[in-house]
Amino acid sequence: KQFSLLPDYRAVFETKNSAESIFEVQFDAVNSNSLSFFFYPTNLGGRNEVGPRGIGSNLEAAYEAGDRRKNASISPRVVVDGRTIPEGIGIKYYRPGTGEDNVRVIRLAEMYLTGAEALAQLDNIPGSLALLNEVRQRAGLPAILAAGVADKSALLDRIANERRVELAMEGHRWFDLIRTGKAQSVLGITDPNKLLFPIPQRETINNPVIGQNPGY
């Protein structure tokens, strides 16, 4: 299968198994899919547990002016199935109760941004920017030029923010912050022992080379 970015960002979540989607958890008519229930607002019978306006969230401010992804991810106030979704609700998946959505797990845009991060770490700035700008172009944003990036650290910060808005509410942000060592500073976590779960004891017994995570 040949993968490609869909021209319309919103279509990624309205088209099952699209050219951009590398892996999706398929809808099961028996077990259904309640993911949309957690996006749906509480006043309409949902949980609103996956949203851009949670405590301490500044996701909306992370979008650049003119970014087409913002209104495709955060509701500007829309009517769905005869119900009004208020402003500020996450709308990548939105249906009351259960829905027929597949869950997008891996898609090409994420791979582009992962590649951009890896190339930046290898000091391949042109290659990194090429992948980063592929994603930005689809979002209707101007390309980032090498002259506009002070150093590798600045480029990595740009990529991190791009991941935040491109993959918003798709379950990547926490792992990005852990991987880059920024979870404590960004989220205000004072106890480093709360960053990781313990490694199962039997694994540390079977392989003494494996050290236990801090705090356990």
Task: Explain this structure.
By secondary structure, the chain is mainly α. It has two domains: 9-105, no CATH class; 107-191, Serine Threonine Protein Phosphatase 5, Tetratricopeptide repeat, CATH 1.25.40. Helices cover 35% and strands 7% of the residues. It has nine helices and four strands, in the order βαααβββαααααα. The protein has helices at 35-39, 59-62, 69-73, 108-121, 125-138, 152-166, 173-179, 183-187, 201-206, and strands spanning 21-25, 78-80, 83-85, 103-107. Strands 1-4 form a two-stranded antiparallel sheet. It has a two-stranded antiparallel sheet with strand order 2-3. α4 (108-121) packs antiparallel against α5, α4 (108-121) packs antiparallel against α6 (152-166) and α5 packs parallel to α6. The chain is globular, with a radius of gyration of 19 Å. It starts with 20 loop residues before the first strand and ends in a 10-residue tail after the last helix. The relative contact order is 0.13.
Features:
about 220 residues, mainly alpha, Serine Threonine Protein Phosphatase 5, Tetratricopeptide repeat, 2 domains, two-stranded antiparallel ribbon, 9 helices, 4 strands, about 5% strand
